[in-house]
Amino acid sequence: MNLTAKNKCFLVALSALAGFVNGFLGGGGGVIVVAEMLAILKLHQKYAQATALLVILPLTVVSAIVYLVKGNVDWIPTLWTSLGVVAGGIAGALLLSKLKGNVAKIIFALVLIAGGIKMFF
Fold this sequence. Notes:
This protein has 121 residues and is mostly helical. The chain has one domain (5-120). The chain is 82% helix and 0% strand. It has helices spanning 5-25, 29-39, 45-69, 75-98, 103-120. Helix 1 (5-25) packs antiparallel against helix 2 (29-39) and helix 2 (29-39) packs antiparallel against helix 3. The longest helix is centred in the middle third of the chain and has 25 residues, at 45-69. It is globular and about 45 Å long. The protein starts with a helix and ends with a helix.
């Protein structure tokens, strides 16, 4: 993939925004990464979503370490939530790999809309 200097700058700037959002809100940076990969890199939806997971992983680890060092983690909910997240992550990754066409894009959009409505009310 050949990227122009302008596109590289956009990727770095948007990725910094994604890192900030993820660190500040505890999530949501992946949505920005998916959007930038769709718009700038012109990746297919499934590849953008899968790649965003790999991009967000180190960011999540770094953010978690900062919160751990500051003493801002409650371990009991962390344990129980982690069990569900691991199971759901495996199931979601397996399902994403089997989806055809624009189904991933439609599901992604519906989840974002539902989340936005929930946050609004």
